[in-house]
Design goal:
Layout (H helix, E strand, L loop, with lengths): L17 H8 L22 E2 L3 E7 L1 H6 L1 E12 L15 E2 L8 E8 L2 E8 L8 E2 L14 E12 L8 E4 L9 E2 L3 E7 L6 E3 L2 E9 H6 L1 E7 L5 E6 L12 E4 L15 E8 L9 H10 L37 H16 L1
Parallel strand pairs: 1-10, 2-11, 13-17
Antiparallel strand pairs: 3-8, 4-7, 5-6, 9-11, 12-13, 14-15, 16-17
GO molecular function: Hsp70 protein binding; unfolded protein binding; zinc ion binding
Protein name: CR-type domain-containing protein
Organism: Talaromyces atroroseus
Length: 348
């Protein structure tokens, strides 16, 4: 099985360039530029580009809201300054690797059950170079590796309004390879979960926790801290008689995520979560009667029935137990249906 780079072209590596292929076919004439009828004197083949280095980078919602500059130290390979990427001393000549025949790779056979498949792998003798220098001829600085390590401070900017899946690219900052243009470092942004806000495109949503008294009687206070540190203050009710209900949604225009390269913003949606009093809340009967008088009366018509049973209830039930009350493990209904169906068939 030949090499396959995922691009639909078996046998071609990810860095293969069309000019290189044509140069090999037409004897180094730079594609078709050196052939009669195809333009003037052949141009040199375009240098290949070394592979990009891609990595995931986690960012907070605050980073994406405000934008952020990140500086970090990086160690990468650069062309050896002493031998200029040759790998050997000035007048030394590299020897062709006899193991791979100067190809830099060799064919490897792998057994999969009764079948043998072939693939290519870098030659371990010449480190995939196709040639090597004898120990005495190697460059003293890079030891024949053609590159040396260099430490460098890099900086990336995460723009305001960026989102999950966006990428930030540092062009030409990947490892350097002889006779190739350096590739890029690509950071793929991964948005971490936020304890307060949730994001959908340019919009934000958050829970608005209020007490029952606030839902009925109103409030004026800072309800949450925004991603840039500002407090968001709400005053309720907007008009007398307005109340807030559980699950009600309040929309605050222009307080969502910023759009890239724009002053426009999305919207903020607050989902009302009314916190009712717990079991320890026990006002006097007189207070409860007064509360009943103040609150609206039920407009539901009474339910009439010939027989009425007064029942008890459990106030701490779990809805996850719904449907699990069959003492026979939930299979009783199916068994009854099967028995009834069998009896019906028998009478036909």
């Amino acid at each position: 099985m030949g090499a396959f780079d995922g691009s639909g072209n078996p046998g071609m590596g990810a860095g293969t360039d069309l000019d290189d292929i044509l140069a090999q076919m037409f004897g180094g004439m730079g594609g078709m530029g050196g052939m009669p009828g195809y333009g003037g004197g052949g141009r040199p083949p375009k240098p290949r580009k070394s592979p990009n280095e891609e990595t995931k980078y986690e960012v907070t919602l605050e980073d994406l809201y405000k934008g952020k500059t990140v500086k970090f130290a990086s160690t990468k390979n650069v062309i050896c300054g002493l031998c200029k990427g040759k790998g050997g001393k000035e007048k030394a000549t590299a020897k062709e690797c006899s193991t791979c025949g100067g190809q830099g790779y060799k064919e490897v056979l792998t057994r999969l059950g009764p079948m043998l498949t072939s693939s290519t792998a870098p030659c371990t003798v010449c480190d995939g170079q196709g040639s090597f220098f004898s120990p005495k001829d190697k460059c003293k600085k890079c030891k024949g590796k053609k590159v040396t390590e260099e430490k460098k401070m890099l900086e990336i900017y995460i723009p305001r309004g960026a989102k999950e899946g966006d990428s930030v690219t540092l062009e030409g900052e990947a490892d350097q390879v002889p006779d190739q243009e350096p590739g890029d470092i690509v950071f793929h942004l991964v948005e971490t979960d936020h304890p307060v806000f949730r994001r959908a495109g340019p919009d934000l949503t958050a829970d608005l926790e209020i007490t029952l008294a606030e839902a009925l009687a109103g409030f004026s206070r800072v309800v949450l801290k925004h991603l840039d540190g500002r407090g968001i203050e709400l005053t309720h009710p907007k008009k007398p008689g307005d109340v807030l209900s559980p699950g009600q949604v309040l929309k605050i225009p222009g307080e969502g995520m910023p759009f890239k390269k724009s002053n426009a913003r999305g919207d903020l949606y607050l989902i009302v979560d009314v916190k009712f009093p717990n079991g320890s809340w026990a006002p006097s009967p007189a207070v409860l009667e007064k509360l009943k008088e103040l609150l609206p009366k039920s407009n539901q018509p009474p339910i009439e029935a010939e027989t009425v049973d007064e029942v008890d209830y459990e106030s701490d039930a779990d809805i996850e137990q719904f449907g699990q009350g069959d003492p026979r493990g939930g299979s009783g209904w199916e068994e009854d249906d099967e028995d009834g169906e069998t009896a019906q068939c028998a009478t036909q």
